[in-house]
Amino acid sequence: MKVSIVTISYNQAQFLEQAITSVIQQNHPDIEYIVVDAGSTDGSREIIETYQHKIHKAVLEKDNGAADGLNKGFSYATGEVFGFLNSDDELLPDALTKVVDFFQQHTDVDVVSGCGYFIDSNGIRSRRIIPSTLTPWLFVHASVSIFQQGTFFRAAAFKEVQGFNIDNKTCWDGELLLDMAIAGMTFAVIGDDLAHFRLHEAGITGSGRLEEAYKKDMHRLFIKVMGRERNRLDSLQDSAARVLRGLINPTYYARRIMSLFTQLS
To answer: What is the pTM of this model?
Structure first.
């Protein structure tokens, strides 16, 4: 089963080589690696060129943001399973083998998410990331834990929802998965650690510079799912959704508690 991985790169030379090597050193025998760079000027292009012999396709052209760049990358993908990795994040060893094994054993599943860790600029681990199963209602009531770096999906699912919304500049990954859930795709969560999510000042998550735009995107997605504006009762439903998350994901809180005990020990 071929896996296609797309990395979007833009002026993250400090971390790019680690991202690339985390993909090309995977032990799965059938990996197609595509790197998209919209015009880096910090040495990233030179790093990509260094690994050109291991990269199946380098897309070196301007784009209309990360979602557009990812769509361009996946337009060249020929694998049965898709995943994407930011240039400052990393896959963990054996991640793709674990993902393929799961998809082969669970032919009814369209999207699978594994666990992982936050790391800092120096690669030091902090909190473990535990994803939860996504449903549209839970998503718009802020009760879904998404771990994009550890999430993979069948190519057919990506094509059915027509890829990323290029107008979404803050949570394009969340909207993609939401669209898959709306389309009736089947989601699963596994306990294996698959990736590192790097938090640093220059990153979107670490900087918080798009917080207002993110709120607008989430408001739009609420209307997309619910067909109406939020009201006062939705705050109560947010609380109910957090309880429901635990009922739908019986292993979610168990994994969080186990991770807490591990960190304290």
So the answer is: 0.92
